[in-house]
Specification:
Helix content: 55-70%
Order of helices and strands: HHEEHHHHHHHHHEE
Number of strands: 4
Largest sheet: 2 strands, antiparallel
Radius of gyration: 24 Å
Length: 280
Amino acid sequence: MFETIFTFVWGIFAALEFYYMRIPFLCFTFFITQLCKAQQINLDSATVTKNIPTNTVNAQKSKFKVKGLIIPVTLVAYGLIAQGNNGLAKLDNSTRNSIVSNHPDYKTKIDNFLQFSPALAVYGLNFIGVKGKNNFRDRTIIYAISTIISTAIVKPIKHISNVPRPNGSGYNSFPSGHTTTAFAAAEFLRKEYKEVSVWYGVAGYVAAAATGALRVYKNRHWVSDVVAGAGFGILSTKLAYWIYAPIKRKIFKDKTVNAMMMPYYQSGSGGISIVYNFRK
């Protein structure tokens, strides 16, 4: 019983806020290059490089905050250390043995759907009129980047680590893919709605923690798999927001169109004339 409670507590802890790093490294390089270029701000055809408070704020928002890495990196470190630490390995085994002895035939498919629920909530909330941080295009690209990063990190580690699943169904247990997806989605929901209400993020992380707990409860993963998966998921989404900031500035520049429409009629013919001024 203690081991089961411990598993769930670890999931809740993860809710509160690389071996295969090619894609993140390339994205990092791209970001640094674009950040240097972004220091010059064009405003009405004049170049302004300083003393612009608004743009200074925007630049600060695009910076990656190192302190935000503490919790996810700690979670990943725990999972990695557990692979070679006898004490943490015993915790994995005792938790698994306790669950199997008490609920040997426990089965559910809820976790297969629950892992996506925080991300679906972002679009659902927008659909009913509760606006988040980004528009449809931006949030969709961000979530896609997060998915690419998490897949690029987790999939190779699963095959290379060769950790057996508790139920003996394979050798790709570490880290938990379901948990990674769930926590990436939970951080996505938190980032989009943290300025609206903190409870949206809390709900997302509760769903993610429940997903991780179910993976252990179904005897599909060890505790260390779930803890590391939570860390990888949070990291993936944090990186996605960081990476997308310069991409948006470079590709999707803000554009303004001032237009005036006037009907006309002359010599038996008519129509509408449009005069517009297009500015980036």
